[in-house]
């Protein structure tokens, strides 16, 4: 079970009020976590990454265990603490634009 | 008993204002989609409870919302648990993909720049089918949905017009902001793009022609070019769809031949710069604009918020000030932020970047704010409910 903290705007879009949880079939990577988030909350497709290219939207950031991993490969394994649900995976809107 | 529903899109959410036909007491509902920019909301003429909303964010992109109950509840029409053959959830209602190779248009520095989808500026429901709706987007293109906004397809004949590489963004981006459907010939539509100009189709959107003859824009290299004009808004009256009114960047214009030619009707306006223009519901020759001082100073001349009305289809304008602030007012009124109801007398409505929505229940003679202190108002649409 993976815990995911969504930014405020995506929580309202997904109609959730707290962190969300998803289960994965395979290993935990940024791609597999977002695949699972989009499957569970289809309205979020296109809001975190592009529909077709799956490229991260430029003002969205990913954090794991206090580290910004936005620029790492989406197929890189996430830390164990994320994979086992000890720590949440953060999807954040970049602080930009005031 | 008739009622009025005002749909106000703002920088930080959507608000729905309702009143009975007296238009004296208003109920304010919102914010819907709190914190998101709502560029535009519009109800279907065929089913007023079907409302479409463009919800957008520089961070999280474009969302299309749809209501089937007059704005009480909303849903993302393509966001349901539909699965693709690959097992992925669909979520297609926010998927706007240009047809074929997007190509390039002119950038601010004169170089060519790839077409990139940013947001939906305007949603125009078709006249007869509530599931049929058009979307005007930035970078400028026209999309169409025939399944209630669940999926979108570009009407690419517009963007692929030979002049496309010469289109360029205005200060607010290269947006297709106006879509008008001819009620007497629904194969004919008009669109306007900043900064390309106005275009018309006579075959339901397959092919388009620029309709900018007579426009003169001294701030572009060729002031009478076929395209490149910063058209801010066009409007028509349903009974006279060959007559178009235009608020250009500078100049208020009129065409009596469906856009084939234009003449200036700015007349005695204190400034002919502005954004919105609209037509009285019952008199096709009565039109309204809100003069703004200049493109460098996006506020009313002399700090006085004045609507100007012409009962002669232009040239002769009277200022309407009763109930509007006449000192220290420095708000703007954006291009999609004016609308009319179809009661008698006709009601006129507009929203400001200062968060007020003003209404006149007597065709503009007097005004009052029906709500104030909202976030900056981006768009105002009015529904007259039977």
Backbone structural class of chain A: alpha+beta
Order of strands side by side in the largest beta sheet of chain A?
2-1-5-3-4
State the strand order across the main sheet of chain B. Answer: 3-2-1-29
Number of strands of chain B: 29
| SSE succession of chain B | EEEEEEEEEEEEEEEEEEEEEEEEEEEEE
Gap between N and C termini of chain B, in Å? 6 Å
Structural class by helix and strand composition of chain B: mainly beta
Spans of chain A of at least 5 consecutive residues whose pLDDT stays below 50 are: none
Low-confidence stretches of chain B: 81-90
Terminal residue distance of chain A: 35 Å
Shape of chain A: globular
* Rg estimate of chain B, integer Å: 20 Å
Oligomer: heterodimer
**Would you list the SSEs of chain A in sequence order as H and E?**
EHEHEEHE
Mean pLDDT of chain B: 94
The helicity of chain A comes to: 10-25%
Q: Report the sheet-strand fraction of chain B.
A: 35-45%
- Determine Rg of chain A (CA atoms, Å): 12 Å
* Overall helicity of chain B: under 10%
